[in-house]
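In this section we walk through a basic example: taking a raw amino acid sequence and producing a predicted 3D structure, encoded as discrete structure tokens. The instruction is simple. Fold the sequence below.
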Amino acid sequence: MDNERNEQLNNAKIIDVDLQNEMRKSFLDYSMSVIVARALPDVRDGLKPVHRRILYTMYERGLEPSKPYHKCADTVGSVLGAYHPHGDASVYDAMVRLAQDFSMRYMLVDGHGNFGSVDGDPPAAYRYTEARMSKISMDMLTDIDKDTVDFIPNYDDRLKEPVVLPSRFPNLLVNGSSGIAVGMATNIPPHNLGETIDAVCMLIDNPDAEVADLMECIPGPDFPTGGIIMGRSGIRAAYATGKGKITVRAKTEIVEGKNGRFKIVVTELPYQVNKARLIEHIADLVKDKKIEGISNIEDHSDRQGMHIEIDIKRDASPQIVLNQLFSFTQMQVTFGAIMLAIVDGEPKILSLKEMLKCYIDFQEDVIRRRTEFDLKKAQDRAHILEGLKIALDFIDEVIAIIRHSKDLPTARTALMERFGLDEVQAQAIVQMRLGQLTNMEQAKIEDEIAALHAKIKEFMEILASETRKLEIVKEELLAIRNKYADPRRTEICAISGEVDIEDLIPQEECVLTLTQFGYVKRLSVDTYKIQRRGGRGVSGMSRREEDVATEMFIINSHDYVLFFTDKGRVYRLKCYEVPEGSRQSKGINIANLLPISPDEKVTSMIRVPEFDEDKYLIMVTRQGIIKRIALNAYNTARKGGLIALELNEGDELAWVRMTDGNQQVIVATKKGVAIRFNETDVREMGRQARGVKALKLKEGDCVVGMSVVREGGLVLTVSETGYGRLSSPDDYRVQSRGGKGLTNYHVEKYGDVAAIKVVDLDDDIIIISQEGIIIRIAAESIRVCSRPSKGVTVMKVNGDDKVVTIARAPHEAEEEISETENETEETAQDNSVEQETTAEENKENE
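The resulting token sequence is shown next.
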């Protein structure tokens, strides 16, 4: 016996399998099956396979809204036998949910009988209940017989089932979906049909619409059970990123009774909250004395709606009790939205815009396929009618040919040879009835041919035009909206304390400051009080040793800020996203706000109120390379930033200014050279272009500033030693880009140039020194001198300190006078400057 068994084993085919690899492969196959074919909805029709099979089976069996209800047992059996070879309980449970008015915002199955309740009561067995399709579910299958969707074989290759339903309304958003797959889950809230269709139409009309625009149509989810959504920040997060936490409260009212005692009346509960369990939980909390102000709970709910009365004790505060109920019970819940759906066979988390875009693309494809089907049908019919028309035109000859033919094939062949017909046309002729030989029938054929040609022309136009297809999608959606749209049930309320940033942050003027070591802070403009020219200033920040304030400007708290780094990258933030600091604080390291690398630093910031199409950015590097690019090239919220320009080795991006495309710029260097030229001398370039030369730099020189010339503006030049002067832009004659420039300042006498800026006389100038000292003076207090002049003292600098940057600010009335030098010294100094100016102008070497 043992020998026989050994011989069988020796003759058997044994396959060695690595258990680890086999387990990995098997579990992966199982996971993908659960993800794609069971637990997650398709982004196109918003249905899981079981729901799709239920609706298609009911459609095949003719269970339309106009027909009588049909036993659920028969429908479930048909689904199991034809398309879904799983447990009958899974099919019936899915069918029941489609018929529950507290689960579906718009029910896809019209149920008759006990289909469960909001109290958690189970539905009756399927042998007792009946169902048919609802009216709106018919629109899920419109034109499915016109080759609008693909069909695949069922589980045993006997039948064909649709891969997806045509779904003439965006069911995924309208009815939502929830499901747990392997390693992922979806939880999409339901929405109002009218609002969702409005959003689809908006995106068709404006493909560039952002989430904020779409939220004008869809303010938030619309749950079938009503309730109140607290705040919009969770909604905005879900719509923008695909994930968000939405807080939903029960709808309550505090009512005073005849006896002077209060009661809390609950008329709506959050979505998916079991009413019976909620009441039981409240009773347990009262029993455990966690809530002590409740004397009685009664449920008066009926078919008219929900009505729970919670009686409050005479000495208790109803508002406090209500807050406790929100805190301790499911009268307030968090709906964790996860917008996960199957896109092109793969699970993907989608934003609201992406979800709507997928639906629009699908509907456009449905219209295309339906039109192609109708076109072919019309062409085939027209082709046959053309043959019949020929036969009627030569009816006597046709009759003679048929009479003298021995059989139908012979007659067909003879007709084809005589009149140049094809087999289809000839077959139609030999099958003509005698009644079709009348003149009236001939006129009908001609009219039908004309109508078909008009239809064919229309179908061809539709197929040739994407705009026309989208118009049809929009028209048909609006028809569904007019038919089924209803008022919103879920209210959306703002709440105090919610971090709903755009609504809470006031619009105000701020000062943004950036240091050499990358510390950024936002301050109110009022922080810096007006001082007299030549003052010593106030301390602007407490800084780490050797840190230098390098950039400062005035900006609205809701404007965008573009941060340009020395590596030639650009990042985008809203101004309010920069934390506010005090005057003495050093701010927050920019690395906490932007994903910059350790060896990368921000060298320039620019205010962008809006990304206008007719605006440009002018960029200048330390080595004098200039680049011009359209502003909207950087209109993206990409967290990793964008390439601003490609840099030469050893160079760094230092200045960026915004222009209207037809302005002039002045570029100044540390060694006292400046050049003025038209920005159109610099051609518009792409994001990764390197740029061209602004001017020829001498060895050891570098650019210290770039500014845009504007009408009425004066060029302010400030030296590192604290001298400053205003000059007319006319002193800087227009040259060609790439030249040597003009002498702007005698640096060998008065020190290197720290910065230049075009300002107005009614501006205030904020000056920052290397030691972090900040002074604010009126621009009109600075003397207007010709180009190479020394100027006047604008800031006292002590020891090794030096001026590093300047900024413009709106003028304010004097509020605070700092310690100043005596006026005699100032007057004498200014007179000395005037005498120097004349001599220097004569010596100027251009």
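Looking at the output, two observations stand out. The chain has a mean pLDDT of 84. The chain has four domains: 47-166, 251-330, 365-484, 505-814+821-843. In the next section we compare this with other chains.
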